Amino acid sequence: MLTVCFRFYRELNDFLPHRWRQRTFARDLPLPGSVKDAIESLGVPHTEVDLILVDGVSVDFGYRLRDGDRVSVYPVFESLDIEPLVRLRPEPLRNPRFVFDCHLGRLARYLRMLGFDTLFYRQCDDDTLLEISVSDGRILLSRDRGLLKRRRLRRGYFVRATRPRRQIAEVVERLQLQGKFRPFSRCIACNGPLHPVASQGVQHLLRENTRRYFRHFFQCRDCARVYWKGSHYQHMEQLVRTLAAE
Question: Where is the Ubiquitin Mut7-C domain (predicted)?
């Protein structure tokens, strides 16, 4: 048996019971194990962690804990340069791409609206999601902590909010996506790329009022769905401006 003191910072406290949040607490561990296993046993997925200090010294996930260690655990740094230290997560993706579990369909549509390559399947098991994330280099977004603790997973994020509008604001802020928006460049239904199309080519797909009042259209290259700048577009455009400002 060994005793280790832990302190988690900022949003990592979201995963902890209230009695441990924003404070140092001691835990008795049955056997010497890795610091990664200890952190995840407390409920914090390793994909949320960017820096671990043991007695002030940076360590990696494989560090074997010893009796009396004091462990400080930090989330992603937004403004502090930690290059000289051990960075636990892979370098940020220049063009982030995503894959979602089955509980976040509305959030997936929001990210597609912003122009991000986003995969979402209504029926998809955890092993398949993990394989897609690892093989394609996609960030796995989920509300399943167990899935985010999988050892092979390198890029993942636990979505805290439960309402879609708050979820998209949270993801944009936490993953620093504001400068990467390419709004209305992807189909929100299937994720395919959109391209301008002549109105004559899509007349048979439109309702009478749409044909009468609109002249400029975009079509998905994959599923052939047609888009135009109606009232729905104005509402989405306002949301994009709000997210960029936030």
Answer: 2-81
